């Protein structure tokens, strides 16, 4: 079974929203690799402590690394140093060899049909990709999202487990893709207590900047994930490696 940890970046509001996008990022770990993933992540956090003064108990959040806030501020790092720590976290996921990642990025400014439930759209696409991944891997999955929207996510999983039809990539009728390989209700995680959810948070922002790069935060940071990215999530739609962009 794969554990699928999720976190978000941006917000789901449409009117007067401070962000133009909403990103939902997943980091998957096979249960047979889970202890190795944990041990390697603990070792990486010690590396951050020794080289960047970011303690193992500090919460790694993209916004805090970028804006020097929260638990990161006490490290006294310059922006280039904080960005180096960010890059190190992305490279770590590739080098560990036990993580698979993808992100769903909703570009709210491109949506023409309103009203639109941004969170529902993001989770629908994410669960569809999980179902396809699990089917290909011949394995089940269990979802562990950052706390805050547990009831919504549980209802969405239950619905898509029984009814999930997707349009055929080649036109014509829809296909039945019930998410029967996603087992049990989701299990919420507090991000401050989950290293894996924290990595998902970093991935969500990096995916956003891959599509909309900033002067001091380029698209290449997402690319540090390398082979950890699940390319199949948009193999038919096209787009950035491991990122489902909607609307495309």
Could you explain the architecture of this structure?
This protein has 248 residues and is of the alpha/beta class. The protein has one domain (2-32, 99-246): Nucleotidyltransferase, domain 5 (2-Layer Sandwich), CATH 3.30.420. Helices cover 39% and strands 17% of the residues. The strands form two sheets. Strands 4-1-2-3-7 form a five-stranded mixed sheet, with helices on both faces. The two termini are 31 Å apart.
User: Which sheet architecture does the biggest sheet show?
Assistant: 5 strands, mixed
Indicate the overall shape.
globular
Helix and strand content put the structural class at alpha/beta
Name the beta content range: 15-25%
Throw out a few tags for this protein.
248 residues, alpha/beta, Nucleotidyltransferase, domain 5, five-stranded mixed beta sheet, two-stranded antiparallel ribbon, 39% helix
Layout: helices, strands, pairs:
Elements: E1 2-10, E2 21-30, H1 34-52, H2 62-67, H3 79-96, E3 100-107, H4 118-137, E4 141-145, H5 150-162, E5 165-167, E6 174-176, H6 195-211, H7 220-223, E7 243-246
Parallel strand pairs: 1-4, 3-7
Antiparallel strand pairs: 1-2, 2-3, 5-6
Helix pairs in contact: 1-3, 4-5
Explain briefly what this protein structure is:
With 248 residues, the chain is of the alpha/beta class.
């Amino acid at each position: 079974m794969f554990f699928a940890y999720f976190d978000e970046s941006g917000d789901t509001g449409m009117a007067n929203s401070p962000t133009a996008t909403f990103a939902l990022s997943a980091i998957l770990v096979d249960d047979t690799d889970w202890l190795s993933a944990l041990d390697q992540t603990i070792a990486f956090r010690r590396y951050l402590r020794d080289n960047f003064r970011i303690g193992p108990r500090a919460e790694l959040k993209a916004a805090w690394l970028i804006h020097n806030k929260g638990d990161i501020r006490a490290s006294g790092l310059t922006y280039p140093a904080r960005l180096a720590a960010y890059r190190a976290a992305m490279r770590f996921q590739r080098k560990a060899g036990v993580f698979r990642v993808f992100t769903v990025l909703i570009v709210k400014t491109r949506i023409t049909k309103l009203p639109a439930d941004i969170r529902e759209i993001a989770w629908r696409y994410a669960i569809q990709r999980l179902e396809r991944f699990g089917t290909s891997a011949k394995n089940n999955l269990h979802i562990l999202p950052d706390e805050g929207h547990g009831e919504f996510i549980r209802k969405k999983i239950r619905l898509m487990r029984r009814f999930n039809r997707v349009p055929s990539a080649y036109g014509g009728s829809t296909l039945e893709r019930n998410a029967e390989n996603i087992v049990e209700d989701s299990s919420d995680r507090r991000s401050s207590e989950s290293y894996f959810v924290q990595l998902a948070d970093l991935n969500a922002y990096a995916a956003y900047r891959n599509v909309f790069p900033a002067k001091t935060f380029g698209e290449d940071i997402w690319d540090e994930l390398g082979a950890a990215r699940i390319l199949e999530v948009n193999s038919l739609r096209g787009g950035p490696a491991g990122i489902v962009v909607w609307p495309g």
